[in-house]
Fold:
Amino acid sequence: MAKALMNYLDPGAIILGVEAGNDQEIIRILSDRLHSLGYVKPSFAEAVLAREAELPTGLPLGSDNNVAIPHTDPEHVLKPGLAMATLCKPVAFSNMEDPDEKLQVSVVFLMALSDKDQQIEMLQEIAMTIQSADTITALMQSNTVEDVARLLA
Amino acid sequence: MTKQKTVLFACGTGIATSTVVAHAVADALKERGISFNARQCKVAEVAGQIDDVDLVVSTAQLPKDLGKPVITTLAFLTGIGKAEALDKIEAVLRG
Structure:
């Protein structure tokens, strides 16, 4: 049985209502958090940005609040972890399925993955979370880490 | 007994979304009475792994003309269009 998403999210890596100019800026902000919390190597941010440019991670949810799940290869990761941001104004990410299509993204999960078999529960939990429009809406309305913790517990 | 078919699950890193999709498809098709061999790789590696594969299921754009059936879908991540995607996969695996 998968554990709740809050078991994977570091409270220090939850940033709510952040203002970011574009996808690269929010990836850098979240990567800095994961780096200062000891999850990833200094090379992580650039590796995620390079991958995002080539193989984007925007996921269309059929609403105004789309989600992106940037990540990169395990060699840039020290230990598995998860960072999350909600954006006060959406930024454009390219659609994973069709890079020519831009999606307005309001919630970003930055994943530090070290091994596919170790992180399957975290990945499944993210998928379950984003499949609930109510949860995404409530995340967007969360003002504190405590709100998020209650929602994703 | 017919030989089990092989499905290659692909995504950008070969460890993240393809893992979710592989588990979701295996669970859902088990309920429909279908089992298959599953492998995973990066989209960049698909062309080199295609020979013994019956179907490629990918979350990211694949090279064109792989010569095998290909289903590119985000349904197992977003939940949108999941039943239709499963129907397509089932049709290939039963074919």
The mean pLDDT of chain B is 95. Chain B has one domain: 6-94. DSSP finds four helices and four strands in chain B. Helices of chain B lie at 17-31, 46-49, 75-78, 82-94.
